[in-house]
Amino acid sequence: MSERRSTPPAETDYRIPRRTAFAIGWGVFALFYTLQSYTFHLSVGQSAAWGPFLANEALFVGLLAVQTPLILHLAGRYPIAGRRRGRHLALHVAAALVFGFAHRFVVELITRSLRATPERPFVWPHVWQSTIGSFEIGVFAYFVVLLAAAFWDSYGRYQAERLQAAHLRADLSAAQLETLRMQVQPHFLFNTLNAISVLIDQDPAAARTMIASLSDFLRATLTEGGRQEIPLAREVELLRTYLKIEQTRFGERLEVRFRIADDAESIAVPALVLQPLVENAIRHGISRRTGRSRIEIEATLADGALLLAVRDQALPDPGVAALPDPTAAASPIPRDAAPAPTRASAPATSGDVPGLGIGLGNTQAR
Q1: Nearest C-alpha neighbor of 330 from the set 290, 291, 281, 272
Q2: Hey, is 200 helix, strand or coil?
Q3: Contact of 101 with 94, CB cutoff 8 Å
Q4: Local structure of residue 171 (DSSP, 8 states)
Q5: Residues 251 and 339 in one domain
Q6: Chain-centre distance of CA 170, in angstroms?
Q7: Which terminus has fewer CB within 10 Å in the chain: N or C?
Q8: Which residues cross the membrane (predicted)?
Q9: d(C-alpha 163, C-alpha 14), whole Å
Q10: Are 244 and 359 within one domain?
Q11: CA 249, CA 247: separation in Å to the nearest integer?
Q12: Residues 70 and 209 in one domain
């Protein structure tokens, strides 16, 4: 019997605020646009001063940046995805024309006013001609912002859905583990109390020992405070406490052997994941034999796999060769693989069919 537990890595949102991203984008675009225009004038032999170019391109890009919050508002108010995308797209086309015209008009108005001289005075018709002739740049910029906002929102929803799904999976796993634990503990307590009631008359000293061991086990499990996962070393401690109870019950008939690799002790596993396996081995193996039996609990790491195994076998009488009789097999399971449901060869029931029952039923569900 084997068990695995893998926890998906925590997801981190590396996104920066949307307005910050657009501000950075416009800054980079302004620098690129200024360098491109400055280099072009030098290549055609025109005199060029860095200051005027920087001021002119900063005005051009700055007005686009000022318009961006309003474009983002319209993008959120009238999304281009959805049932009304046709109507919303038409509205954005109209808005883009208005934005493009207004942007170019303000740029021409300011630049021509600042450059006006007695020889080249400010003329309104020139402003209108330049605006009508080159307002398409503002229209293009509007749709760039619109599409970027749509992509940003779509990616944000995708990330939110992934995060929500991860939380739901974690909540579901926690609920399943808690349900299984609530099933295991009453079953174990019933068996232990029943054994104590029998020993009270037959062997009072053994009954007192079992009561003390049960107290230690319950105290240890309550100390964990309902944690879903614990280190394997702590899981082994809890299992040893449980096995003290069973060894009191079976006496010399039960021999226990642990084989826990040092490098596996720090790995987190579901709390009380081994106890149902051991209980199943005792219930369907050792308790049905009259001779001596051995339970082996093994934990190893190999090729990126964590292997938890519980085996039980009958031991021969002294002087008789041992015949292995494992009632449980183990197989390596990669730790970094996504957990897949463990399927039993037959449906788990609560009857007395060997290899089934609440112990393996819980383990298979985990």
Answers
A1: 281
A2: helix
A3: no
A4: H
A5: yes
A6: 8
A7: C
A8: 21-38, 58-76, 88-107, 127-152
A9: 13
A10: yes
A11: 5
A12: no
The alpha carbon of 150 is separated from its chain's Cα centroid by a whole number of angstroms, namely: 26
Is residue 6 domain-resident?
no
Asked if the structure places residue 182 within a domain, the reply is: no
Model confidence, pTM? 0.43
Instruction: Answer whether residue 340 is part of any domain.
Output: yes
Give the Cα separation of 249 and 209 in Å (integer): 10
Cβ–Cβ < 8 Å for 210, 196: yes
How is residue 299 annotated by DSSP? E
Residues 359, 212, single domain; the answer is yes
Q: Percent helix, strand, coil in the chain (nearest 5)?
A: 65, 10, 30
Q: How far apart are CA 275 and CA 279, in angstroms?
A: 6
Q: What was the pLDDT predicted at 358? A: 37
Q: How far is CA 180 from CA 43, 239, 269, 361, in A?
A: 77, 17, 14, 9
Interacting residues of 69 by C-beta distance below 8 A, sequence separation 6+: 19
pLDDT value at residue 249: 80
Boundary-marking domain end, from 137, 162, 187: 162
- Residue 15 identity (one-letter amino acid): R
Q: Is the pLDDT of residue 11 over 80?
A: no
Domain that holds residue 226: 203-365
What are the tokens at 168? 């739901």
Domain count, the chain: 2
Is the pLDDT at 348 greater than 70? The verdict is no
Two tokens, residue 88: 């919303």
**What are φ and ψ of residue 296, in 5° steps?**
-115, 130
DSSP assignment, residue 334?
A: B
Say how far apart CA 354 and CA 281 lie, in whole Å: 9
Please state, in angstroms and rounded to a whole number, the distance separating the CA atoms of residues 231 and 104: 66
Per-residue pLDDT reduced to its tens digit, 76-118:
888 888 778 888 889 989 998 988 888 888 888 887 787 777 7
Tokens coding 63: 């007005």
158-187 residue pLDDT tens: 888 888 888 888 777 776 666 655 555 666
Please tell me the distance from the alpha carbon of residue 355 to that of residue 239, in angstroms, as a whole number.
20
